[in-house]
Every structure is written in structure tokens, then in C-alpha cells.
């Protein structure tokens, strides 16, 4: 067949791609083929290796092994420019655009049409920008500054930018994550138009409804391996979910015999103008309560409101049956609620300060006399909690920034335990840390719960949620979507509730 | 403590290096060395330098600026800055001179000077902490604002005729050649060193300067700490205004002109990171002495004021650039 819109020869084929990072195999011999005029959906849990693959496709990472073929000829993408020259372009979750520049400038940044003396040819650029914007059905003034546009329009600019270089392969990494339903529909139309144009599209998404709406093919990644690929018509949603999560529980979680006690925390009607709405739940003493959801479901935003960083618009918190007003982290800490943030480097640790000073920062009143610090007490307090967490460091005087991610996390957790909290909120506690530290953190969480501390654990990793939680709350679009007790929990239920896809009645 | 995997006993010491190593590696030791060199150079440059009264006079070159520099050091460590300090001096001095016209005595004048300092500090602090404006912009604005008010009040006039007992605060001697200002300098140095290095408040200043977000997340009331620091800087400027006005015996609107640069130079030369988060009061004390010695030495050699300001400017740039250059050379070798 000569019709190149439906050929069976892939534009781009990856075979045997392996990529390792110190201590982690991110991708192991994966295969991927992208066909012109077709949308291939790439599905997999967080940490399955999707982002690594995108970075290899766009020339940001180099694979350790494997072949990249474009039109059947082997090639390499040593730089991002090389990938772009080969016709591969990506639209990321959070696109890098410049608010102070115009739409046209954003579209052509780095490859603007030049006129005499190498100056930018504005009229040509404007015309070309208008042409591209029309092609994707975006009614935007190319001379408008980007800061005047809404999120969805910015997204269109990002897409226009991707298409301004003659792209043959378009990678879309969770493009609908920040869009409203109407905007998502527009994006679908755009994808259809790109298909008709003969582009090969790699579509990364967690949402099953959209995968079945627009994809022609699918590829499933799990733990850095490609587990299945095929035509979307030959697969059901249930089968896809199973392939995604059907893993052996390779991480070993501590055995827990939990007997949660009295209810210690009760949150009712917590709402925020934009991030979350109507959050109601209770937390018992000694319980580990998991919070699962997709990235952007509002879990961290809710936790930060509970910790007093942001203000909720309504809602109430009761601690030990008494109404607790929390307007700042200082008040939350005083009442016994502490929060281990997801972003360790920015919110958790002060990396340029020594370990012992990080640990004692919220507990200075414990290690001081009339406002004067007692350094010996500080070292003693820091030692007590870091030893329990099996911290590996050269000395307690060492700056936190010189520690590995896992050990930094141990310092942050030690800091909070030293305040003797009633409720500890852990936001993605093992994200980006090595396997050994991960196990140490898990074991320690179990120990804390056994001692009667109540734990809220926000996690996007299904094994961690399954392995650690007594009870799980699933959030979707800022609301509680489902709640499961430990014994009724299955990976499939979690994925369905988080993605908003209900079990098929059949 | 249990040894879990048998590879190594996990005995994390409190500190890796003892006190001698930490002192040897410190910026303060280097500064002290520089101070001694300049002192020796001065003894060679002029035979009059070692005279006790001359040395005593030399201290007036830095004492009043150093009062402000101590508070400024805390403010810069917390990640903010106040460039309006010289403007505050002008306004506080003008207020005192104006009050003088109504026959207000020495105690009243001091209260007015300090109050104006506090109010100006509060004004800066509110703009920065409540409205979230960047302090460098706010205080460049208030720098002209405060001095502008004294120009309006005074024009090309001057307030004179301060009471004789008022002069003590600028020209008084406590014992032999030891001036009142020098005593005050050591008292303030001790207080600020204590606050910064040995109190919870000082620790919170470092935490805020290094990472304001993590500091907030650790329960530190960042806005309140910064507000206190702006108030302190205003108060110290008020104190400097009292001493300087007493020493000069008159108020002109150009009083303490461009002092903010010398104060910031002192702080940065003292090893305080202009980006916040690091520095010590001892460093600022030595830096103050260095600047005092240099200005005095150049004065003895009859070097004109313009050359001195070139020297101060070069010193400031040198101090910031040299550590970075050293790091560049080191990493260049490593690569």
C-alpha cells in the first residue's frame, strides 16, 4: 500500500532500550514502535519508566543499550536538537513557556525566521504563527503577550511550538492533566487533526477514558519493562488495568498487626476555592491512612491546608474531640500535627545547615534555656532520633545537602518526631530514595504506628499504599472518590477509583 | 544502638572536626590577619599612627557605622537588606534638631532619635512583610524618602546649639582614651553576637535566610522574625543618629550621606553572605576595625576622600569576587 497514512512501517522504532541510574534500572530492554497517522497510548504506573523513555526520545537522556531507528535507519539523539531535527517533538506536562514574550515569540523561540542582518523577521514570524495556530484550530492573536492567556490557551501555544518545527513524531506527556473537560475535548479534536496530518503520536495518560477515546495502539510499561503492546480494539479496560498493576510484590513490607484505637483526628467539610472540596474523614490512633490518587488530584494541597500552610475556605478540624483552629504551620506543630513534604530540598530540609540544627529547628524550646540554645542538648536530641532512623552520615555537624536523598528524608522525619507529634503526615515519603532507605522508612512507619502515632501517608505508588495502609482514601479532582479498608483493597480498585473509571457492569 | 547489616558500626559523631580545625578554616581568622597587616602597614606609613589619642580618634571612623552593621548583619543573614539606614539617620537627626527649637533637653532628644529610628524601621518592615515587597526596592525608596523629608525641613540650613551634656554621646570618654562610643561598640558587639549565635531567635534567622519555605514549614513565624529585624535596624540607625549628631554638634540634611554603602561593605567584608544564611558578628567586628584602620591610615597619608571611596568600592567587589574566583580555580583544576 502506498497510502502513507496507514502504513505498517513505523516512523520511529525503539528496540532493546536499557537505561540505568545508580542503583536503579529505569528501563530494561523496552520496545516501542510509533506509526504514522496513529496514536499509541503509553500506560503504566508512576515509576514505570514512562518519563525516562520520553527523555530518551527527546535526546535528554542517552540509552545505555538498544537501537533507535527512524524510517528503518539506525540513529542516535545525542542532544535535544538532534531529536528535534529528526522530527521528534514533545509537549510536556508542565510546559516551559515565557510569560513576558508574545505568542509568536514563544512558538518560534530559538528558531525564529531571520531577515536581513540576522534580525528576526517579524512579519514572516507573525504569518507563520498565524498559519500554525489556524492549523491546530486555535483562535489566538500571535502578537498577544503570553501572560494574558489562560492555561488552556498556553497549552495550545505549547502545541503550536511543538509543530513549528517540522514534527513527524509528537510526544504528549499527560497533556490533559491541567485542562477542563471542554478544553480536553478541544485537545481530542487537535489530536485527530494531527493524526489526519500523518503524525505519529505517543500519548501518555493515566486516564482510561481518554486512552480508549483517542488511541489506536497501546504499550504497557511496568517496573521499567514493556509488558504488553497491541491494538486498542483488542483489549478491554479491565485487561489494561490488570497488565499495568499485575505485579509481583517485589518490595517487602513490614508485617503489621495493627489495632487502631480511638479516633484522634476528624476533618469535616474541608474545602478550598480551587484545589479541593468537601474532604471528610477520621483518623484513629495508631492507624496508617493511605491517600492515593493521580498527580494533581489535590492530595498535597489538602495536606498543606491541614498543616496550616494555606487557608481552607471552609471546614473544621477536631483533634481529640476538640475543635482545633490551624492558621499556620506553627499552630499545627503546637497542636501535634506535622507534615513531611514531598519536596524535600525546598520545603523539608534546610540543605545548607547541619543535620543537628535541622532536627532541632521546630523543637528549639526543648533544647534551650530561656531562649538560649544548649548545643549539647541539641546534639543529644538529634542523635536520639537519627539513630532510631539509622541515619548514615559522617557527623551530625554535616550539612544535610551532602547526604543522599534517603538520608535527607530520614533527617526530615527525625525533625518531626522530635516534636512528639500526635499525627504525622508523610507526603510521598519514599519518592526518589534508594531501596535500602525506602525499607528503613517503611519499617519505621510501622514502628511509629505500633507506638500509637497516627500516620497519614500520601503516596502514588500502589505497592506502598497496599503494603502499608490500614485504610485508603482515594482522591480524584480534589474530592474523595473512594475509601477502602485494608482487606477489601485491590490494585485494580485503586486505579479505577483514581482514574474515575467504574468497574464494567458486564 | 544495633548494628543492622554488619558492614560498619553506625556511630555518627557529633562533629568531624574539632574546634582548632574550625577556627583555622574560618573567614574571621583570615580577616584578623588582614587587620594586623594593615595595622603594621599603618605604623610604617606614619609615625603619628601609634599615638594613643590618634588611635582613639580612629575608632570614630567605624563605631557608629558598626552599630548599624550589627543589625544589618542579622537582616542580611535573614535574606533581606535595608538601604535606608543613612536616610533614617538624616531624618532622626533632623527630628532631634527640630525638637531642639522647642527647648527639649537631652533625654527628650534621645527618645525622639530612637523613636524616629523605630518608626522608620517599622515602615520598612510593614512594606516588606505585610505587602510582600522586595526589601531592596522598598528601602531604596525609603532611602530617598527619609532624607528627602530632612531636605524639605532644613533646605540649606542647619540645626545647631545642641546642649553640652548631649555632646557626651558623641565626644565623651569613659576612661582615658576609651570613648563612650567605643564602649557602646563592644557592648553591642557582645549583645548581637549572643543573639545571633546562642539564641533560638538567631538560629531561626539562619534558617530563614537559607530556606524561607522550609523555615515556614518548620513552624517559624518568618514575617514576625523579619519585622523584628527591620525594627532593630531602625533602632540601631536611631542610636547612630544620636551619637553622630552629638559628635558633630549640628544637623545638616546631608548628614551620614552614603553610609548605607559602607555599612553593607562592613557586613559583607565580615563574611556575611549577601544571599543570606551565613555569617558571624565576630567577622563584622573585625571588618569594622579594618575599614576604620584603612580610612584612618589613608587620612594620615593625606589621601583625598575620593580615593578612599574608590578604595572602599574596590574592597567590596574584591571581597565578594575573591571567594568565587578561588572556587572557580579549584573546580577548574578538578575538572
TrEMBL record, chain A:
EC number(s) on file: 3.6.3.17
Keyword Ribosomal protein: no
Molecular function terms, GO-annotated: ATP binding; ATP hydrolysis activity
Gene behind the chain: rbsA_4
Membrane topology summary: Peripheral membrane protein
Protein name per Swiss-Prot or TrEMBL: Ribose import ATP-binding protein RbsA
Domain ABC transporter: 12-248, 259-502
UniProt keyword annotations, A-Z: ATP-binding, Cell membrane, Hydrolase, Membrane, Nucleotide-binding, Repeat, Sugar transport, Translocase, Transport
Protein localization: Cell membrane
Listed SMART domains: AAA
InterPro entries in UniProt: AAA+_ATPase, ABC_carbohydrate_import_ATPase, ABC_transporter-like_ATP-bd, ABC_transporter-like_CS, P-loop_NTPase
CC annotations in GO: plasma membrane
Domain of life from the UniProt record: Bacteria
Major subcellular site: membrane
Native source organism of the sequence: Palleronia abyssalis
CDD domains, A to Z: ABC_Carb_Monos_I, ABC_Carb_Monos_II
UniProtKB/TrEMBL annotation, chain B:
Origin: domain of life: Bacteria
GO molecular function term, any single one: transmembrane transporter activity
Keywords: Cell inner membrane, Cell membrane, Membrane, Transmembrane, Transmembrane helix, Transport
One GO CC term on file: plasma membrane
Coiled coil: none
Transmembrane segments: 62-78, 110-129, 136-154, 174-195, 228-249, 255-274, 281-300, 306-326
Cellular location(s): Cell membrane
Keyword Cell membrane: yes
Predominant location category: membrane
Topology in membrane: Multi-pass membrane protein
Pfam name, any one: BPD_transp_2
Annotated function: Part of the ABC transporter complex LsrABCD involved in autoinducer 2 (AI-2) import. Probably responsible for the translocation of the substrate across the membrane.
Subunit structure, as described in the record: The complex is composed of two ATP-binding proteins (LsrA), two transmembrane proteins (LsrC and LsrD) and a solute-binding protein (LsrB).
Name by which UniProt lists this protein: Autoinducer 2 import system permease protein LsrD
Source species of the chain: Palleronia abyssalis
Amino acid at each position: 500500500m502506498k497510502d502513507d497514512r496507514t502504513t505498517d512501517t513505523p516512523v520511529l522504532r525503539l528496540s532493546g532500550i536499557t537505561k540505568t541510574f545508580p542503583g536503579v534500572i529505569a528501563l530494561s530492554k523496552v520496545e516501542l514502535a510509533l506509526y504514522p497517522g496513529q496514536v499509541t497510548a503509553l500506560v503504566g504506573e508512576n515509576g514505570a519508566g514512562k518519563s525516562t523513555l520520553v527523555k530518551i526520545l527527546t535526546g535528554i537522556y542517552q540509552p545505555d543499550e538498544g537501537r533507535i531507528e527512524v524510517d528503518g535507519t539506525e540513529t542516535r539523539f545525542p542532544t535535544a536538537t538532534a531529536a528535534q531535527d529528526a522530527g521528534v517533538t514533545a509537549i510536556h506536562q508542565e510546559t516551559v513557556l515565557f510569560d513576558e514574550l508574545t505568542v509568536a515569540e514563544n512558538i518560534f523561540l530559538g528558531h525564529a525566521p531571520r531577515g536581513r542582518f540576522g534580525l528576526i523577521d517579524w512579519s514572516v514570524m507573525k504569518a507563520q504563527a498565524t498559519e500554525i495556530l489556524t492549523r491546530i484550530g486555535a483562535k489566538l492573536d500571535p502578537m498577544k503577550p503570553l501572560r494574558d492567556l489562560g492555561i488552556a490557551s498556553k497549552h495550545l501555544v505549547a502545541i503550536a511550538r511543538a509543530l513549528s518545527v517540522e514534527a513527524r513524531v509528537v510526544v504528549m506527556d499527560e497533556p490533559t492533566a491541567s485542562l477542563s473537560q471542554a478544553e480536553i475535548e478541544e485537545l481530542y479534536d487537535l489530536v485527530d487533526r494531527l493524526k489526519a496530518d500523518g503524525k505519529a503520536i505517543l500519548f501518555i495518560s493515566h486516564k482510561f477514558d481518554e486512552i480508549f477515546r483517542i488511541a489506536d495502539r497501546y504499550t504497557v510499561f511496568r517496573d521499567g519493562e514493556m509488558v504488553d503492546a497491541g491494538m486498542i480494539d483488542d483489549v478491554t479496560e479491565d485487561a489494561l488495568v490488570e497488565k499495568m498493576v499485575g505485579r509481583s510484590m517485589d518490595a517487602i513490607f513490614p508485617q503489621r498487626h495493627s489495632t487502631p484505637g480511638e479516633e484522634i483526628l476528624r476533618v469535616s467539610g474541608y474545602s478550598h476555592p480551587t484545589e479541593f472540596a468537601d474532604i471528610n474523614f477520621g483518623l484513629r490512633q495508631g492507624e496508617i491512612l493511605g491517600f492515593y490518587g493521580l498527580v494533581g488530584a489535590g492530595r498535597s494541597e489538602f495536606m498543606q491546608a491541614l498543616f496550616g500552610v494555606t487557608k481552607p475556605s471552609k471546614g473544621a478540624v477536631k483533634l481529640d474531640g476538640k475543635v482545633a483552629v490551624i492558621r499556620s504551620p506553627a499552630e499545627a506543630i503546637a497542636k501535634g500535627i506535622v507534615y513531611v513534604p514531598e519536596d524535600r530540598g525546598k520545603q523539608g530540609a534546610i540543605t545548607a545547615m547541619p543535620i543537628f540544627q535541622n532536627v532541632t529547628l521546630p523543637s528549639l524550646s526543648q533544647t534551650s534555656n530561656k531562649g538560649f540554645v544548649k548545643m549539647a542538648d541539641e546534639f543529644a536530641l538529634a542523635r536520639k532520633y537519627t539513630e532510631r532512623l539509622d541515619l548514615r552520615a559522617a557527623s551530625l555537624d554535616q550539612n544535610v545537602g551532602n547526604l543522599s536523598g534517603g538520608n535527607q528524608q530520614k533527617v526530615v522525619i527525625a525533625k518531626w518526631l522530635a516534636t512528639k507529634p500526635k499525627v504525622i503526615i508523610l507526603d510521598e515519603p519514599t519518592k526518589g530514595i534508594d531501596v535500602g532507605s525506602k525499607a528503613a522508612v517503611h519499617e519505621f512507619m510501622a514502628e511509629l504506628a505500633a507506638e500509637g502515632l497516627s500516620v497519614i501517608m500520601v503516596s502514588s505508588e500502589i505497592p506502598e499504599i497496599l503494603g502499608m495502609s490500614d485504610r485508603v482514601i482515594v482522591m480524584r479532582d480534589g474530592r474523595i472518590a473512594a475509601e477502602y479498608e485494608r482487606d477489601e483493597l485491590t490494585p485494580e480498585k485503586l486505579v479505577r477509583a483514581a482514574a474515575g473509571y467504574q468497574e464494567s457492569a458486564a | 544502638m544495633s548494628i543492622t547489616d554488619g558492614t560498619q558500626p553506625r556511630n555518627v559523631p557529633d562533629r568531624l572536626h574539632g574546634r582548632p580545625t574550625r577556627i583555622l578554616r574560618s573567614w574571621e581568622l583570615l580577616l584578623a590577619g588582614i587587620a594586623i597587616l594593615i595595622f603594621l602597614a599603618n605604623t610604617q606609613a606614619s609615625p603619628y599612627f601609634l599615638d594613643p589619642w590618634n588611635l582613639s580618634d580612629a575608632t570614630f571612623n567605624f563605631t557608629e557605622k558598626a552599630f548599624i552593621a550589627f543589625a544589618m548583619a542579622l537582616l542580611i543573614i535573614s535574606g533581606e537588606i535595608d538601604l535606608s539606614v543613612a536616610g533614617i539617620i538624616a531624618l532622626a537627626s533632623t527630628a532631634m534638631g527640630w525638637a531642639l527649637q522647642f527647648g527639649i533637653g537631652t533625654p527628650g532628644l534621645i527618645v525622639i532619635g530612637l523613636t524616629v529610628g523605630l518608626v522608620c524601621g517599622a515602615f520598612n518592615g510593614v512594606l516588606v512583610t505585610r505587602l510582600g515587597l522586595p526589601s531592596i526596592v522598598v528601602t531604596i525608596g525609603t532611602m530617598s524618602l527619609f532624607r528627602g523629608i530632612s531636605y524639605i525641613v532644613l533646605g540649606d540650613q542647619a540645626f545647631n546649639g545642641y546642649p553640652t551634656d548631649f555632646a557626651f554621646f558623641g565626644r565623651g570618654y569613659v576612661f582615658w582614651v576609651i570613648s563612650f562610643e567605643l564602649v557602646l561598640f563592644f557592648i553591642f558587639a557582645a549583645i548581637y553576637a549572643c543573639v545571633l549565635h546562642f539564641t533560638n531567635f538567631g538560629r531561626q534567622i539562619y534558617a530563614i535566610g537559607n530556606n524561607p519555605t522550609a523555615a515556614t514549614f518548620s513552624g517559624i513565624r518568618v514575617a514576625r522574625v523579619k519585622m523584628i529585624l527591620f525594627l532593630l535596624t531602625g533602632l540601631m540607625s536611631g542610636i547612630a543618629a544620636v551619637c553622630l549628631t552629638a559628635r558633630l554638634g549640628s544637623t545638616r540634611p546631608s548628614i551620614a550621606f552614603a553610609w548605607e554603602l559602607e555599612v553593607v561593605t562592613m557586613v559583607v567584608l565580615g563574611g556575611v553572605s549577601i544571599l543570606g544564611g551565613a555569617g558571624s558578628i565576630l567577622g563584622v567586628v573585625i571588618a569594622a576595625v579594618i575599614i576604620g584602620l584603612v580610612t584612618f591610615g589613608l587620612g594620615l597619608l593625606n589621601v583625598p576622600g575620593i580615593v578612599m571611596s574608590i578604595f572602599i568600592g574596590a574592597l567590596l567587589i574584591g571581597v565578594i569576587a575573591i571567594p568565587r574566583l578561588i572556587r572557580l580555580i579549584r573546580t577548574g583544576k578538578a575538572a
